[in-house]
Design goal:
By secondary structure, the protein is mainly beta. The protein is 9% helix and 53% strand. β2 and β3 form a beta hairpin.
Amino acid sequence: MGKKWIPIIVLTLFVLHDVSAQQRVINNVGLFAGGSYYFGDINPEKMFYALSPSFGGFYRLTLNKRYAIRSSLYYGRLRADDKDFHYSFARIRNASFQSTFLDMAIQFEFNFLPYSTDPRKIIFTPYVAGGPGFALLLGSNGVSNEFVLPVNLGIKVNLSKRFDIGAEWGFRKTFNDRLDNWSPTKYSLIPENGKSFLHNNDWYSIVGIFASYKIFYGWEKCAAYW
């Protein structure tokens, strides 16, 4: 067993130990709506460039006030065009693309504050989520399947014991340069300002708001634990 698995094993044991003493397990289903945009060779740095509609849903298994596991399915659009930029290389290259995506992910979620449905306690928290993901991309260059690494930042607020709302900003790192159907490696002479950031791998981002409903309260253990 390689050393790279040691942190994963330690984290898993820590979470399972915490879950064994938990008070309750909560299941949420939620809906998401917002926008999606792209980073890559055509758009190396502009935030919220060509923001296009995105929507989807998720299922969250809340283990305790700090930890949750979630799965999500999002649909969105991505586009970019060199005509939207004014540097000289973009005008010469004249590249563009449009595509749609289906984004699936399973993520571990960590709350920075002890998130509770009790109105006498903390009912909001910022959080971070990360884990493996998969994207099905349909564009001008055909259909492709891509492994992605999703990282999300967000905040959620309890409206009641059953409903909560929030906002989230997620980034998906791909591990190739095919999202925009353009790569510097296709050409023999590429000026420095024509290269994308972070090793020319394409990214896309999903940002928006969500609402969720708690559908099931699971078993209860060790009420004195909290």
